[in-house]
C-alpha cells in the first residue's frame, strides 16, 4: 500500500494531443483510457455508457484532479457514475490518435506496453464472436453490491 500511495502522490498529469475524426485538441490528462465495454474489471466502470456492439470506442479522459478527491473518483467508478464526474470526459469515436512528447506507456488487457510517441487506436466493429451461456442461468451476486448501492448519496456534488 505504501508503494501505491507514493506512486499516486508523485504521479503528474501530462499534456496530450488527441485527434478524433478531424478535430485535434490538447488535453491535460491524468489518465486516458479506451473502452469497448463499461469496465476495467472487478466492477470498476470507466465508461458506463460504452457498448461492445456499437462500433465505437469510448475515449475516457480523466483530467487533472485534486488528489484528495481520488476516493470519490474511485467510488464513482464502482457505482457507475464516473461519466457524471466533472474531471471525466468521455468521447465516442471510431478512431483516435494520441500524441505525446515522451514515449507513451500503457496497458492492453492488463499487460504493460510501450507505444512510442504516437498511439493510434481504432475499432473493427463486430469482429469478435463470443460464445456465452444462456441468459436464463443464475448470475452470481457481486459481493460489493450492498456497498455500491450505499455510495451514490455520499459522492454526489
From TrEMBL:
Protein name according to UniProt: Transcription regulator
Matching Pfam families: YegS_C
Coiled coil: none
Superkingdom: Bacteria
Lineage of the organism: Bacteria, Pseudomonadati, Bacteroidota, Bacteroidia, Marinilabiliales
UniProt-listed InterPro entries: NAD/diacylglycerol_kinase_sf (IPR016064), YegS/DAGK_C (IPR045540)
Ranges of residues in domain YegS/DAGK C-terminal: 5-131
Amino acid at each position: 500500500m505504501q508503494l501505491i500511495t507514493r506512486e499516486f502522490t508523485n504521479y503528474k498529469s501530462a499534456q496530450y494531443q488527441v485527434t478524433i475524426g478531424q478535430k485535434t485538441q490538447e488535453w491535460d490528462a491524468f489518465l486516458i483510457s479506451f473502452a469497448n465495454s463499461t469496465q476495467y474489471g472487478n466492477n470498476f466502470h470507466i465508461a458506463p455508457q460504452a457498448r461492445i456492439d456499437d462500433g465505437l470506442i469510448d475515449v475516457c479522459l480523466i483530467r487533472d484532479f485534486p488528489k484528495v478527491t481520488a476516493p470519490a473518483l474511485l467510488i464513482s467508478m464502482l457505482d457507475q457514475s464516473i461519466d457524471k464526474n466533472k474531471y471525466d470526459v468521455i468521447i465516442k469515436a471510431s478512431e483516435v490518435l494520441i500524441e505525446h512528447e515522451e514515449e507513451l506507456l500503457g496497458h492492453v488487457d492488463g499487460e504493460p506496453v510501450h507505444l512510442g510517441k504516437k498511439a493510434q487506436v481504432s475499432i473493427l466493429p463486430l469482429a469478435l464472436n463470443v460464445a456465452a451461456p444462456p441468459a436464463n442461468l443464475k448470475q452470481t451476486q457481486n459481493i460489493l453490491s450492498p456497498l455500491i448501492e450505499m455510495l451514490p448519496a455520499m459522492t454526489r456534488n
